[in-house]
Amino acid sequence: MMRTYFAHIRHRWYIYLILTVIWMSALIRVLVNPTPWLPILFNVTPSVPYWIVAIDYTARNPQRGDYIVYSFEGDAVRQFPGMRRQPLFKQVAGMPGDVVTVTERHVYVNGRDVGVAKTHTITRLPLQPIAPTVIPPGYYYVAGQNPDSFDSRYAISGLVARRQILGRVTPLL
Questions:
Q1: Relative to the CA of 11, which of 29, 49, 108, 135 has its CA 20 to 30 Å away?
Q2: What is the predicted pLDDT for the residue at 57?
Q3: H or E stretch at 7
Q4: Are 54 and 170 in contact (CB under 8 A)?
Q5: Three-state DSSP class for 27?
Q6: φ, ψ (nearest 5 deg) of residue 116
Q7: Phi, psi (deg, nearest 5) at residue 17
Q8: Residue range 70-109, pLDDT digits in tens
Q9: Which conformational region is residue 29 in: left (phi greater than 0), alpha (psi within -120 to 50 degrees), or beta?
Q10: In whole numbers, what is the pLDDT of the chain averaged over residues?
């Protein structure tokens, strides 16, 4: 009986390969980020410079420098209702207790420059920088890798609450 089973696997290996890939991707949660190719095709800027990442949905207590995937709950949901269903991933640049300061439109976390807040979106929606604050317990300042990222620099996006974090992202490629 086992001999027949292994013969079947050997002749239909491609079916089992596909099933294994599906099963493994469900276990490790692999995500393909198409944005590195989009600037070439659609003149869109990438937010995170990785093509393939693994997501650990059990890790919800990030450290500075970790990449996280989170559900969007910022004030921008009123302007862009579709963003509520859009998971985003960014890098944690500020932890609870860190000091966020703003000079003109330059935003700093503990004195380290994390970006310049633009004056408006590409759709001409006015943008205000985040207000100077001390990051409260249970919240994180997230930053994209691109100057055009929609991240915690903006009041309309804001800080990310721990409850919004879906998992930690590990870049693979």
A1: 29
A2: 83
A3: helix 2-11
A4: yes
A5: helix
A6: -110, 130
A7: -65, -45
A8: 888 877 777 777 776 677 889 999 999 999 999 999 999 9
A9: left
A10: 80
Amino acid, res. 167: G
Q: Return the top range by mean pLDDT from 19-23, 150-154, 166-170.
A: 150-154
Higher pLDDT, 100 or 13: 100
The answer on pLDDT for 40 being more than 60 is: no
CB proximity list for 129: less than 8 A, separation 6 or greater: 102, 105, 107, 117, 153, 154, 155
Calculated CA dihedral for residues 82, 85, 90, 94, nearest 10 degrees: 100
65 CB neighbour count, 10 Å cutoff: 8
Question: pTM for the whole thing?
Answer: 0.74
* Separation between Cα atoms, residue 114 and residue 62, nearest integer Å: 18
Residue 83 three-state SS: helix
At 86, give phi and psi (nearest 5°). -95, 110
Residue 142 tokens read as 């997230």
Q: Which residues pair with 130 in a beta bridge?
A: none
- Tell the residue number behind the tokens 């890790």, with chain if given: 59
